[in-house]
Structure prediction request, 198 residues.
Amino acid sequence: DYIDVYQLHNPPLKILNRAETYGALKDLKKEGKIRAWGVSIFDPVEGLAALKVGQPDSIQVAYNLFNLKPASSLIPKAHAVGCAIIAREPLANGFLSGKFEPDAVFSTGDMRQTWPQEYVLARIFAAKKLKFLERAGRTQTQAVLQYVLKNELVSTVIAGAKTLQQVEENLSAGEAPALTAEELDQIKSLQMKGFASD
Prediction:
């Protein structure tokens, strides 16, 4: 009888800056046809525009161990006005799982197939530097998901999965051993160096 969360998917900034963009969504919420509405955006600037003009209930944004850009302005501002943050791409398109090798080949239709090889390799080698996150009872994938959820201003994550095993691995991230202060320090050090080689 209703939709829980209705989101606009990656509308351009000029659309996000128009108050009329949000009118129908607000009406649908008043009518009870949707419980909440939001926008899925690419750049935090777009989310800030939506907050200013439309006051969405949620913003979906790419946020992960490689991409912390939303944490500096968008996430705190959204929290301050009661807007939920849905972190998408917490595994950075699968690269943060650490499961890809330099000779990885992506199938036709996979957007990663069109990415420049040097970008793909940089992601693969950066993820390999996070192998220290694997330990008894916790995979690298689970540790990376924990890292995103450790930000208390993040409401939830959307973690992609292609197999039942991946779904189960993702869902059990909260039950895996928690990241330690030492591990978080190591992550921060890598981030500060841009995952560059020593």
Notes: The mean pLDDT is 95.
